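[recover] target loaded
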């Protein structure tokens, strides 16, 4: 099992898929990395040599913000919006959708479980 950017990469998966286990690397970046380093993307992680794993690790460290640094950056950006009290910051603060989605019927992921409201008594 290879360890890249503080994450244990599953060894039985293809390199292209295994790299997506790192926060901040998706399919596109994983594909770019494998092409840039000349690694066949269909190979399994267990078939990589130590040298190739080292190349991947160095390429990620050099050119990509991943894992803890990325999470910290995103959290600081959200905190900045909340401190500014701009519209997006207020939406984050209230736990509502930020990007203009409707909230009348949807947005259960952001709003949480539905809270019953006492209905009118007859």
């Amino acid at each position: 099992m290879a360890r890249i950017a503080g994450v244990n990469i599953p060894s039985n998966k293809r390199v292209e898929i295994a790299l997506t286990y790192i926060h901040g690397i998706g399919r596109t970046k994983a594909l770019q990395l494998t092409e840039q380093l000349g690694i066949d993307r269909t190979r399994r992680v267990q078939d990589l040599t130590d040298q190739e794993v080292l190349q991947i690790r160095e390429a990620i460290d050099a050119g990509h913000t991943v894992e803890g640094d990325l999470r910290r950056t995103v959290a600081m950006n959200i905190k900045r919006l909340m401190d500014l009290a701009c519209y997006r910051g207020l939406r984050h603060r209230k736990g509502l959708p930020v990007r203009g989605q409707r909230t009348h019927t949807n947005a259960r992921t952001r709003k949480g479980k539905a809270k019953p409201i006492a209905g009118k008594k007859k």
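[recover] notes: Residues 101 and 107 are 8 Å apart (CA to CA).
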